[in-house]
Write a structure and sequence with these properties.
The protein has 171 residues and is α+β, with helices and mostly antiparallel strands. The chain has helices at 20-29, 70-74, 94-106; strands at 9-15, 33-35, 38-44, 49-55, 60-65, 79-82, 84-85, 88-89, 91-92, 123-126, 135-141, 146-151, 156-161, 167-170.
Length: 171
């Protein structure tokens, strides 16, 4: 899909490690609309602990720009590049950005990004929560947070709401 020169589109940008907030501020100073998904995390230091806004997707931010603003984004300090596929900048549909904003604005639970692809028939191990350490066969995936597991020792299927980051593939 080629971007229209008259329409602003959302694009994902790759930024240098730990520079997401700096890039967001610099882009806003250039009057470029930028969305950096953040969530509060409790951080500990020797002398104190504090709730800090941390990026949800490390190394990425999103910009809504006209095609002619692309160069200005790329010339921003700490911006590595726009996310591309087959040589073209990837347009992120507006409803996906709005859904991310809505989800992050309405949850009190930590959101973690998982890049692991899980598929039915695969054996998984639960990494955290009350069932930590349990091994089960993944029967089906119903969206991002609802899965069906078969626990052989109990001889039944268990439908459970579990975030993908709590599972890891195992053999």
């Amino acid at each position: 899909m080629y971007p229209s020169p008259e329409i602003k589109n959302w694009f994902a940008i790759r930024v240098k490690s730990r520079a997401e907030k700096k890039v967001s501020e610099q882009l806003k100073e250039k009057a470029i609309e930028c969305y950096l998904p953040l969530q509060k995390q409790l951080r500990f230091w020797r002398d104190r602990k504090k709730l800090v806004d941390m990026p949800v997707i490390h190394g990425y931010a999103f910009v809504k720009i006209f095609p002619h603003e692309r160069l200005s984004v790329l010339q921003t300090r700490h911006v590595v590049n726009l996310v591309r596929f087959e040589g073209k900048d990837v347009i992120i549909p507006n409803p996906q950005i709005e859904a991310m904003k809505c989800m992050l604005g309405q949850t009190d639970y930590p959101v973690e990004v998982s890049y692991e692809e899980l598929s039915p028939g695969q054996w998984v191990k639960i990494r955290s929560g009350i069932m930590k350490g349990l091994r089960a066969e993944l029967i089906s995936v119903h969206g991002k947070n609802r899965i069906t597991l078969r626990i052989n020792e109990l001889n039944f299927n268990l439908m459970i709401d579990l975030p993908a980051y709590q599972l890891e593939a195992c053999s």
